[in-house]
Amino acid sequence: MSQALDDLRATIARLRAPGGCPWDIEQTHQSLVRCLIDEVSELIDTIDREDYPHMREELGDVLIQVVFHAQIAEERGAFDLDAVAREVNDKLIRRHPHVFGDHAKLGTAGDVIVKWEQIKAQEKKNGPARAGVFKEQPPRLPATMLAEAVWKQIEKNTLPAEDAVDVARVRELGATLDDEALGRTLFELCAAARARGLDPEGALRRESDRVMRAVEAKAAAAR
After folding, report:
1. Which residue has the higher pLDDT, 52 or 156?
2. C-alpha distances out from residue 223 to 70, 131, 133, 150, 159, Å
């Protein structure tokens, strides 16, 4: 690792050590979750604005969270930052055989995604078996990303969604929407929800859950 990263690791370790900062010493993986979400959200804001000076700062704040979690894990004897970097580097090399191996070169980004998913699926075979037809999503995934991921799985695996979703309406919207219209519509829906005292995030998450249950049930009945 570079000297700058080594210095950051040493700083976090010192803050956590006896005689260090009382706040840092008290932190756990669980207590830092909100901090991680906040820092990633602030980073996304700088990316949206292409604000590179502040992006550098916010990337640093996210990096603090990574090093902090690795330090806590190292104190527990679980793993350290080197293990984190080593594992993800090995994964990148393994999932890019067209660059680091002797596989045929891939011509487009779409080809790369297909190959990545094939290798990823092979790796997952060594883990616990998936119970349903949907890929498990991160539990704290924002509702819009969850809904998008659910629909992606429906399309990718040709799942029976007709009774759970107005598929014709989805296609109709997809043919007419652009980025500006999508943003305006989402904003207006959120504003209207606020006016009615409704929670758009929770409503969309519940709807995604409903769609998954309905599709799962129909897929199970067809087996």
Report:
1. 52
2. 44, 14, 11, 20, 12
